[in-house]
Amino acid sequence: MIRKTLLLCLLAISLFMTVYGGFFRKFLVYDNLEKFDKLKNVGITIKIPGYDNASEDFKPESQWFTEPEVVRAMTFEGIKRYKDGKLISNYPDLRMLKGRIPCPT
Amino acid sequence: MEKIRLKIQLACLALLNLGVFQWQTVCFPVLNCHSCPTAIFACPVGIIGQFVGLGLIPLSVVGIVALAGLTVGRFLCGWVCPFGLFQDLLYKIPYIKFDIPRWTRFIKYGVFAGLVVAVPFFLTPAFPAYFCRLCPVATIESAIPWAIINGTTDVISLSIRLAILFAIVVAAMGHRRFFCKTLCPLGAIIAPLNRFAAVFPQRNIDCTDCGVCNKVCPMETTHGVSKHGVFEGAPEECISCLECQKKCPTDAIKLWG
């Protein structure tokens, strides 16, 4: 009985987390380049290919993203954001928020 | 049953890595690297690490993993996980077989707490010891393919990853499900929920306590003494592979209880 009650409680909590996180939760994401510049100002250097050459093309923006969009941005999509120094994706590369390096290799 | 399980594992490997589309807004609760060129879903461990690195908890991802853990539990490890299939195949290779101490199963909780949570939170995932940078699944599915496709300049990092993969492959050849049992951080998340899972082998009144199930269990769970129902000894490790059901002389084990 205790086990079943606990199971139901845990199921309800996890269902709430899934539904809330999947459909209602939103994040205000600052564009990488704001963070990038802030990090650069305090002496932390992150190398983004093409950034130094084409940084004038970028306009830092902040946007609201749903949690699934942030999840997607943290996967492979994030890496595609910068190619040859140009912004090619709508998703901010969250991996770089704390000076992180893209995942695969 | 073993052949059916193998077929389902192969089908899941194909389905999770079809590469015809990407739906990486959603995590599928098995260890399947989303950086793989053909992966469809996101890896929950990778996403949790990334979120924790930003000081956030991915509610939808934790919720999906918890829902899976509470309904099917580590059945996913036994029947769906591609790396589980890889280890099952590795163990069939003739090689020196060995046992490992029972306490080693607790290492995976340390791996989860340390490399998936603590390192990203305190040191950011860019730190070389972040789990995804050492993950053998990511090495097979992502690091090696991308090194072939794009080449790599980070030879040292790739060499370390390959060395870790090699060590795990050798260990998996000698001990069944070595990685699942000792190192898998996703297993560490799902294991505590496995006790509540609806899909879980249970013994009925036909059980004669012969102990055969204990001997054949790849995850070293034990059936306890004279008590029916779920396996009492380390039930969190059970991957519902049904090796025990196959060997049970009285057919006393059912997956659905």
Structure description:
The complex is a heterodimer of chains A (about 100) and B (about 260). By secondary structure, chain A is an alpha+beta fold. Chain A has a domain at about 25-95. Chain A has 5 helices and 4 strands, in the order αβααβααββ. In chain A, the strands form 2 sheets. In chain A, strands 1-2 form a two-stranded antiparallel sheet. In chain A, strands 3-4 form a two-stranded antiparallel ribbon. Chain A is elongated and about 60 Å long. Chain A starts with a helix and ends in an 18-residue tail after the last strand. The model of chain A is unreliable at about 80-90 and about 95-105 (pLDDT under 50). Chain B folds into 2 domains: about 1-195, no CATH class; about 200-255, Alpha-Beta Plaits (2-Layer Sandwich), CATH 3.30.70. Chain B has helices at about 1-15, 45-55, 60-70, 75-80, 80-90, 105-125, 130-135, 135-150, 155-175, 180, 185-195, 210-215, 245, and strands at about 200-205, 230, 255. At the A-B interface, helix 1, helix 4 and helix 5 of A face helix 2, helix 3 and helix 8 of B.
Offer a concise description of the structure.
The complex is a heterodimer of chains A (105) and B (257). With 105 residues, chain A is of the alpha+beta class.
Quaternary structure type: heterodimer
Termini Cα gap of chain A: 49 Å
Proportion in β-strands of chain A? 5-15%
Number of helices of chain A: 5
CA-based gyration radius of chain A: 18 Å
Rg of chain B, nearest Å: 18 Å
Strand order of the largest sheet of chain A: 1-2
